[in-house]
Amino acid sequence: MLSHLKKYHIILASQSPRRQELLRGLNIPFDVQAIDIEESYPEQLVGVDIPMYLAEKKANAFADKMEKNTLLITADTIVWHAGQVFGKPINKADATRMLKSLSGKTHQVITGVCLSTLNKRKTFHVISEVHFAQLSSEEIEYYLQNYEPYDKAGSYGVQEWIGYVGVEHIEGSYFNVMGLPVQRLYTELKRWKE
Amino acid sequence: MLSHLKKYHIILASQSPRRQELLRGLNIPFDVQAIDIEESYPEQLVGVDIPMYLAEKKANAFADKMEKNTLLITADTIVWHAGQVFGKPINKADATRMLKSLSGKTHQVITGVCLSTLNKRKTFHVISEVHFAQLSSEEIEYYLQNYEPYDKAGSYGVQEWIGYVGVEHIEGSYFNVMGLPVQRLYTELKRWKE
User: Fold this and answer.
1) CATH T-level assignment (fold) for domain B3-191
2) Is A40 helix (H, G, I), strand (E, B) or coil?
3) Which of A96, A95, A98, A71 is nearest to A84 (CA)?
4) Is B46 in CB contact (< 8 Å) with chain A?
5) Residue of A nearest to B26 (CA)
6) Minimal Cβ distance to B164: which of A138, A170, A182
7) Prediction ipTM score
8) Which of A58, A169, B14, B170 has a 20 to 30 Å separation from B107 between CA atoms?
9) Searching chain B, which residue's CA lies closest to the CA of residue A25?
10) CB of A75 within 8 A of CB of A19?
11) Cα-trace Rg, chain A
């Protein structure tokens, strides 16, 4: 599958182990490279524009390393809830605050993905709606004691205990909630021409 | 969590490795036991009644082995599409037929779960809607050549390549599509009293 991409050296510029695992699921050869940017964005941006901006910012940071046959994949995932971005928590109190706010409510998980070569760029986004059951203080405490929310947007991993007991309902792509909308990415790669 | 269940010996009677993995995600101690029944059901049953019936049939088959402190979990998952059950495929042609029929359409994945002790039984079901993108003949062939559809209702595993490239959209629980609606199960276990 995707044999028209054989001429490319596909690079995923992301430290996220979940994103790497998800891309592996598409069965295409790729390499991982680290990228280190400050995840800041213009404050007037809202919703989908934020992860699209950050996915492009990551691509821009990689510009020096692009070669003729590089096909670069960068992505950014945010939790968007009540008109605000829920990013990675800075400490336990921050994680507790986020999870209490998500409890019993529906939020959006939005991933922006940027595909780039030296000659072409395509950026898109995918939204999933996630409905959390009411979480008790004990459940939130148990999760924060036993798992690692600190590298995760919104302070939770959908593939961890909290996702098992807390996520009542998803509308959209589950893999997008994990960090990469693989079905849409596959479709975009299938259509890729330059 | 779920400390009121400590008095029970929880048994999952299921050979499905996916179901075992999903139950492990709830972080409660349990043992697995094999159960072997013929997965037949009265032909007048439709939709949700089928996996509920089969989950209870599995519980009935375990009756002899129930002890005073046993809390038994049995489950059955079906794919329901166009008024028909899509079970485990009997051969490659059957799997091809099912995947062609699911391609570009929305189907339901329904799991029936039965919780039993010697004194009490609770059976429930969870429905997830799964929308498949249009799958090409090459994609179906590639999946059937490289993966194992034969132990899977509807001939596909949502956690495999075909789920990555084919599942555009889910409405409901992703884990239910894998074979066990863990969030609902957790809620039922939390409420369990006898």
Assistant:
1) Maf protein (3.90.950)
2) coil
3) A98
4) no
5) A161
6) A182
7) 0.93
8) B14
9) B161
10) yes
11) 17
Q: pLDDT tens per residue, chain B (194 residues)?
A: 899 999 999 999 999 999 999 999 999 999 999 988 998 999 999 999 999 999 999 999 999 999 999 999 999 999 999 999 998 999 999 999 999 999 999 999 999 999 999 999 999 999 999 999 999 999 999 999 999 899 899 999 999 999 999 999 999 999 999 999 999 999 999 999 99
pTM for the full model? 0.94
B146 contact residues in A (CB cutoff 8 A): 27
Give how far A170 is from chain B: nearest CA, Å.
Answer: 5
Q: Residue B115, class by beta-carbon neighbours within 10 Å (0-12 exposed, 13-18 middle, 19+ buried)?
A: buried
Domain locations in chain A as residue ranges: 3-191
Dihedral sign for Cα B160, B166, B171, B177, please. negative
| Residue from B64, B76, B94, B151 carrying the catalytic annotation | B76
Query: What are the CA-CA distances from residue B127 to residues A164, B47, B56 (Å)?
Result: 16, 10, 17
The residue type of B92 is K
| Token digits of residue B119 | 């004194």
DSSP per position, B115-143 = EE-SS-EEEEEEEEEEEEPPPPHHHHHHH
User: Are A164 and B183 an interchain contact pair (Cβ–Cβ within 8 Å)?
Assistant: yes
Are the CB atoms for A23 and A73 separated by under 8 Å?
yes
User: What whole-number distance in Å separates Cα of residue A163 and Cα of residue A130?
Assistant: 10
Q: Which residues pair with A132 in a beta bridge?
A: A167
> Cβ separation of A171 and B174 shorter than 8 Å?
no
Encode pLDDT of A63-121 as tens digits.
999 999 999 999 999 999 999 999 899 999 999 999 999 999 999 999 999 999 999 99
- Bridge partner list, B121: B116
